[in-house]
Amino acid sequence: MERFQDENKWLGSFGDIIDVKCPKCSLKAVVRRTFESQYHYNDKKVLECKNCHYSKKENSIKYIAYVNSYCCNNVDKVTFKSQILNKKPKAIKLKCPVCNERKGFKPKIEEVFEFISDGNSRKERSFNAELWYQTAISGNVFWAYNLDHINYLQRYIRADLRERNSKVNGGGTMIARLPMFVKEAKNREKLLKIIEKWKK
């Protein structure tokens, strides 16, 4: 009987290097941390492809600011759409067509990625690059960041006895947050076959 005990890892534990599909040549590339920050989610990332030698540093996420607000008379709206911006503006100064005063309006922000992928794929957050390891299964997407992540998932899926660590706070680990289709016994063989294919 195989036994798995939750090691209290969270998804970010596997996020130092993420295998992705290169946005330029579609072969395997990586997004890696620069370790300029000790905090995973604040750290800058670099996308690198050894196949086509493409390399890009953050920030690939840009922004469009929208204003659609009333100013002085609650009848006429002030509307505005910015060009693509490198930074999120906290306020946009615009002239009201009714009172002719320039006022600060809080905009709604839309994130725009340099690389666009279809909406069904799992993507890496910094560059919007598609994850290399992902497969559709029964209307869901089974995915992983890298081989360490895959091996951890494989140990969990293969185990007959799965133990949670009671010392960890209420369900914050990656294992505790796995979707139900990964936990269900009926999908075990399918998922293990996908993992074996990924590892070849």
Radius of gyration: 22 Å
DSSP E strands, number: 13
Going by helix content, strand content and strand pairing, the class is alpha+beta
Major sheet description: 4 strands, antiparallel
Q: Which bin fits the share of residues in helices?
A: 10-25%
Uncertain regions spanning at least 5 consecutive residues: none
Strands of the largest sheet, in order across it?
A: 2-3-4-5
Task: Tell me about this structure.
The protein contains three helices and 13 strands, in the order ββββββββββββαβαα. The chain is of the alpha+beta class and 200 residues long. It has two domains: 3-59 and 116-199, no CATH class; 61-113. A hairpin with a 2-residue loop joins strand 11 and strand 12. Helix 1 (147-158) packs antiparallel against helix 3 (188-199). The mean pLDDT is 88.
A few lines on this structure:
The protein is an alpha+beta fold and 200 residues long.
Features:
three-stranded antiparallel β-sheet, four-stranded antiparallel β-sheet, single chain, elongated, 200 residues
Q: Which SSEs are present, and which pair or pack?
A:
Blueprint: E1 3-5, E2 17-21, E3 28-33, E4 45-48, E5 55-57, E6 61-70, E7 77-81, E8 92-95, E9 102-105, E10 108-113, E11 133-137, E12 140-144, H1 147-158, E13 161-163, H2 180-183, H3 188-199
